[in-house]
Specification:
- By secondary structure, the chain is of the alpha+beta class.
- It has three domains: 104-183, 2-Layer Sandwich (Alpha-Beta Plaits); 189-286, no CATH class; 294-472, 3-Layer(aba) Sandwich (Aminopeptidase), CATH 3.40.630.
- 36% of the residues lie in helices and 24% in strands.
- It is built from 13 helices and 17 strands.
- Strands 13-12-11-10-9-17 form a six-stranded antiparallel sheet, sandwiched between helices.
- A hairpin with a 2-residue loop joins β15 (436-441) and β16 (444-450).
- α2 crosses α3 (48-72), α7 (206-215) runs antiparallel to α8 and α9 crosses α11.
- The two termini are 78 Å apart.
Length: 473
């Protein structure tokens, strides 16, 4: 079989060059003959000058027409897109990079529309006219009709929130709410909910935090079944299926009592209520659980201590430490006498109300407790250290670890309630290196620390001699 190159395949008769040469020579001779005849006519003819002037005028008219036509039709038709298999350009002619899209502002917008065909399309079209890009969309059907649509939007930086609200209203939306979003909101809803469920499964203290991250800015109260005095708590009565009342959600706490969630600025939807109830049911099925990781540290004088998470199983050891503390130490911690220490400690050690760190010696005796307590939408830190173990850096170590937990939980600030005479607590708070606010309330000192995005690291580990390294279990 004869091999043919691609060029030969496209022009199978390319080797017949003499035919084209003959045609070109004939055209050339004809052009020369015509030119000679015109020259003789102009030079020797009686009307030669007039013919020459007429030819010049005709050429001028043709040139003018060509100029007018070129200006009117100066834009060439668009080139067809290059096929995907086209070969890339060489380095001598690099491809021009497309301009990067302008950075926008992320917004979360929630609006209520009629539950009828075309309502969502009208809203999306209205947003598109302002150059708004819809990154994600969730729909929340309402029991009384209508649908709450929640958008994650990327809007032009010059477009204000008021214009988004106005656009939604003109497209048929009402009860519109907007809030600035960040990169964390780019995670889709199923992935975020699975992550919250995983955190809740690992640690019972994560349930209030998971609910807060699921529902946005809200206030969560864990109401125990009984008061500290032992009487039944009327506010803790919640049905098994829970209660949804516009901006208030009440769920039964698996550990007893109720969990109340309030969000005055935005009503809850049935979808949000179902998600929150599913997290609470998961917590109920898994039962009490606390991570059992622990750190063994060495104090400057050489004694080893263990820092670990504590829960209600440490109630007996905590009560024994309570009994060894002096009245002054207990007074600085509780700002007065403690009537029922067992019930109060059971409340503090419950993972439902926060996280607790315990410090025990090499012999296993509990000598210090540090609490990170969820107080609605605020967070409190509190310390209790046995008298013989004070002034050894334990309080500062506990405080740094508690604040690292608060940063991990997304808290903006923490506060400590103490007295001005509690110089140890004041010094520990000042040693954090964070901005502090001081306020006197009813004879007590409230110190608020504003947290930054960097967790507070432990410093006690760096005080260990080289021959006694800190180790972790």
């Amino acid at each position: 079989m004869t091999h043919r190159t691609p060029a030969e395949a496209q022009h199978p008769h390319r080797h017949h060059h003499w035919r084209r040469d003959v045609v070109e020579l004939a055209a050339l001779f004809t052009a020369v003959a015509v030119a000679d005849a015109l020259a003789n006519l102009v030079v020797h003819g009686p009307e030669g000058p007039y013919l020459l002037v007429a030819s010049a005028v005709a050429l001028l008219i043709t040139a003018g027409f060509h100029t007018w036509w070129a200006r009117r039709h100066s834009h060439a038709p668009p080139r067809p897109p290059a096929p995907a298999s086209a070969a890339p350009r060489s380095d001598a002619a690099p491809r021009r990079q497309a301009p990067a899209p302008a950075a926008g502002t992320l917004w979360r917008m929630r609006t209520t529309v009629r539950d009828e065909p075309g309502s969502l399309a009208a809203l999306c079209t209205a947003l598109a006219r302002h150059g708004v890009d819809i990154l994600s969309l969730q729909t929340h059907p309402l029991a009384e009709g209508g649908t709450v649509d929640e958008f994650l939007l990327r809007a032009p930086q010059e477009l204000p929130a008021a214009e988004l609200t106005r656009t939604a209203a003109l497209a048929g939306g009402h009860s519109t709410w907007t809030e600035r979003a960040d990169a964390h909101d780019l995670v889709d809803a199923p992935t975020r909910i699975l992550g919250l469920a995983t955190r809740t499964a690992l640690d019972a203290a994560e349930l209030p935090l998971a609910l807060r991250q699921l529902l946005g800015r809200c206030t969560i109260h864990s109401i125990p079944a009984t008061t500290l005095s032992g009487r039944p708590n009327a506010a803790a009565d919640a049905p098994v299926e829970g209660v949804l009342e516009a901006t208030v959600m009440r769920l039964r706490d698996p550990s007893g009592g109720a969990i109340t969630i309030e969000r005055p600025y935005l009503p809850f939807t049935p979808t949000e209520f179902a998600r929150a109830r599913a997290l609470v049911e998961l917590d109920a099925r898994l039962g009490p659980r606390v991570p059992r990781s622990q750190d063994v540290l060495t104090l400057p004088e050489g004694n080893e201590i263990t820092v670990r998470r504590a829960d209600t199983s440490d109630l007996a050891a905590a009560r024994a430490m309570h009994d060894r503390c002096s009245p002054r130490t207990l007074g600085l911690r509780y700002h007065g006498p403690v009537g029922d220490a067992d019930r109060y400690l059971d409340h503090l050690l419950s993972p439902r109300f926060g996280r607790t760190l315990a410090v025990q010696t090499a012999s296993g005796r509990l000598v210090a407790l540090g609490h990170l307590l969820w107080d609605g939408d605020e967070t409190e830190v509190a310390l209790l250290i046995e008298d013989d173990w004070q002034r050894r850096g334990i309080g500062s170590e506990l405080l740094r670890r508690l604040l690292a937990m608060a940063v991990e939980a997304g808290c903006d600030s923490v506060y400590a309630v103490t007295q001005s005479s509690n110089t140890g607590m004041v010094a520990a708070m000042r040693g954090l290196g964070l901005p502090l606010d001081y306020q006197i309330e009813e004879g007590t000192l409230v110190i608020t620390a504003r947290l930054d995005a960097t967790p507070v690291r432990s410093r006690l580990a760096y005080e260990v001699p080289q021959d006694r390294p800190t180790h972790q279990r």
